[in-house]
Amino acid sequence: MSSDFVGQPHDFDFLVGRWNVSNRRLRQRHVGSSDWHEFPATSQAFSHLGGIVSVDEIQFPTEGFSGCTLRTLDRAARRWSIYWFGPIETSGARALTTVAHKLHSPDAC
Description:
0% of the residues lie in helices and 52% in strands. A hairpin with a 4-residue loop joins strand 2 and strand 3 (53-60). The protein has one domain. It is mainly beta. The strands form two sheets. Strands 1-2-3-4-5-8 form a six-stranded antiparallel β-sheet, with no helix packed on it. A two-stranded antiparallel sheet has the order 6-7. The model is unreliable at 90-109 (pLDDT under 50). It is built from no helices and eight strands.
């Protein structure tokens, strides 16, 4: 995605609703592995305040954790901020603390 992306209200409305999600991740990363761990999740997403706030919660019943994403649009800058609340992964091992992250990336919208 180009750095010229312009955030608009309702950009994340395609997520709105309740979804059964199939996930997979490599059991070992950065070692050339092709052994995937597959697991289900249920996601529920909402749009608020005229589409400038997007919230979703995802539950991973077989993994024993859940998380929440909060997206807010800065109308003046026309840029989205995205926050994740829940477990994080560090070197392939799940952290046990709940933290919030703000994603900074030229390809994040």
